[in-house]
Amino acid sequence: MHMADALISPVIGGTMWAAAAGTLAYAARKVQKDGDEQKVPLMGVLGAFVFAAQMINFTIPATGSSGHIGGGVLLAILLGPHAAFLTIASILAVQALFFADGGLLALGCNIFNMGFIPCYLAYPFIYKPLTGNKPTQGRITLASVLTAVIGLQLGAFGVVLETFFSGITALPFSTFFLLMQPIHLAIGLVEGFITAAVISFVYHQAPEILQNTASGQPLGSLSIKKVFTVFLLFALITGGALSWFASSNPDGLEWSVAATTGDEELTAADEVHGFFAELQEKIAILPDYNFKPAVSEPVAAPVESGQPAAWPSVDTGTSLAGLVGSFITLLLAALIGKGLQVAAKRS
Known about the structure:
The protein has a two-stranded antiparallel sheet with strand order 1-2. The protein is built from twelve helices and two strands; from the N terminus they run H-H-E-E-H-H-H-H-H-H-H-H-H-H. By secondary structure, it is an all-alpha fold. It has one domain (about 5-290, about 315-345): Arp2/3 complex 21 kDa subunit ARPC3. A hairpin with a 4-residue loop joins strand 1 and strand 2.
């Protein structure tokens, strides 16, 4: 559900950038005040895991569409809303800057739809009340599914509103709304069960992480080594290998845009959109999670030579993107957490 720049106007893009920046400042103050050093490595490794998991689009049967997890709810359950919001914002920034996944102008919208809504609305008002103080397997599953569905429905509606207020006439409100909500209902159900499975694993391995996070208590001296190691392995395997098997179908947003307009991507020709498009093209090292296309088509080696092709395979580029993106996200999220703690100690 990463919005492209062409879906919004510069005014809406700037407004949502400001809203995201204000929320980031608020979350940073809360994490700084929290001072939980154990949360720093978790922010990094969970950010890497969610980055890799978002690369795997799963097919939505009988629709020609696909979806991927958002991860905001999962992060909020394990980290609390403030650290989770900083982590999901790190993921989205890395995706936009280095992989051209989601527009730079639309980054504020994406942070709001995929970060603020699940972390500050869905998690505290749906997941926490449903699981209660003594979560069971049944409660975890029910709460995870319902929270993911409602969070994604609100996020999809946010996209519809942002395009509407941007004056994107190619996407009429009622038509776009009636396409976006059902397809993201299906995606939300899948994300809910994935979230439940991951949370259940943590609950059985280190229930104190969930209990302390839910009560707002620091992790303190709790051992997170096993959980950290498992999620690091998950991130490496998911980004490096499982990403090869992602569905090639358009995601729910692209599918809805195509069903409305006849084209998966819209174009915008004004100077502001052009500036951000040019900037993103220069920065992105692995656009669309693959190698940049060569200026001219390479000449294939003769069959009898037995030499490999002069350019890497798609799988190689996808694996590299998954590993590089996971590493950058891990480093960025951990540095943010550590930097806030260092600042708190000096103040």
